[in-house]
Amino acid sequence: MSSPNPALVTQRGARPLPRLALLIFCAAYVLPGVFHRDPWRNADLVAYGLMASMAEGRTPWLAPALGGVPADAALLPHWLGALAIQWLGPLFGDGAFAARIPFALLLGLTLALVWYTTYYLARTQAAQPVAFAFGGEADPVDYARAIADGALLALIATLGLLQLGHETTPELGQLVGVGLFMLALAIAPFRRWQPRVAIVAALLILAGSGAPATALGIGLGGVLVCQRSAYERVRAFVPWVAAATLGSAALAAWLGAWHWRASWPDAEDAITLARQWAWFLWPAWPLGLWTLWQWRRHLTHRHISVPLVTVAVAMAGCIATNLNERLLMLAVPGLAVLAAFALPTLKRASSAAIDWFSMFFFSICAITIWVVYVAMQTGTPAKPAANVARLVPGFVVQFEPLELVFAAVGTLAWLWLLRWRTGRHREALWKSMVIPAGGVALCWLLLMTLCRPPLDYARSSRPEVERLRAYVAPGSCIAAPSAPAVAVAALEVFGPYRVDARTELAATGCENLLYRVRGSKPPPAPPGWVHVATLQRMQDRDRGERLALYQRQAAPAGAVDAGAR
Q1: Which 8-state DSSP code applies to residue 380?
Q2: 248 close to 219: Cβ distance less than 8 angstroms
Q3: What is the DSSP letter of 250?
């Protein structure tokens, strides 16, 4: 016999979130950050630099390089960005914006995959709420929709996905692969050929997006989940999962994506790990733990085991790569699904605590952003204005009315949401996730409208490269031996310069040389070069790191004539 189901849900509690409201939530989360900004350091800029280099034909598509140095790049997402630059760049006149379009669509696709995964998992018999003796329990379809709405809101509310999910990096492709994997196992009892196509595509996308070990891990986990399923059709799905897992491993080998990246943290890093997971996975992780406790007798059922496999593999990958938060991000979709199944088991006091904490926290954050914006525009209050000037030296404040309108509309919508939440829909399953998701969407919207100009100035490398133009004309060749990939990408994107980052200085044909130095004095000029300038790197002003520029010394005229004779 199966264990008692902990979910008790009435028909009133299973009311779905209005579709228009759900779409507005998704748009308010996905769209801010797509427009009017540069690629940001570090991974965002490096990824775009590779995409632009491919699109412009400066590097091979199968063996991309930056500054002549081979790059360890996930090919499928970079191909996607490069194609967008080629096809959409001329249309919009901005290659960076064109590259962000497909990645914004990938984020939106991840939201949709999580919703449909949760919907189909909630449709299974083991996930359905208990039937009441005299009726009145939730309709199975309405219950599944309400749970799926909760999962989508939990995904939006999770803090770790906020910035990383809006970058132009391969992790967006990996997120889609994880979501598609969960959907394939979720729809296996209900569809015939769709889950087969989905499982193959999911693991191949993961392998081609730079996560072959994750594909292998969740593929093996998927085999175990299918073997233990109560559905015969799901058990018959095992050969497909196994074949897709092997295929992903073979694809990764063909693309050269297998690399040893393991770097285990020390025991002293346990506190750092706990802090990272606590904020990165908030607020989904406490709800996920509550789900595992309340449904502890149902851990082998698919609505728990499917998302749990992806969460466990992503967390193990984070630990094995020395607390890599980009791998931890792959745990967010599965954790959002787990968090959704905690909603029908929450007590009213717990739900109220989540609401009140989120209401005060995000309201304070929104007020802080508005105060900083007013201080930038008017100089009052004086202290926030001075802090902005100190943190972003050289930034010139400009008034942008359109972004002010969007910020004001978002703030009014937040106030309406607070009033709506405290006055109605107290029985709805997804009620505890509305305020956290709305608060995250509001703060992200305010940051990407009111505070976007100073953030863009601080996070972009454009100001530093523009200072270099006073000494080196755009299009010139710069030798930057052993320079990090982000520096090479900045020079190639914002210069634009032709960069040679190989270590053989004597073999370069460049007339300019750039070194990263520490301290106030540059190192002695190499033979045949003369020091021209030392430039302060804005983001490293506290560490004293600078850029020393040298130019090739012209040979004396007499020496040239003697050589000619």
Answers
A1: -
A2: yes
A3: H
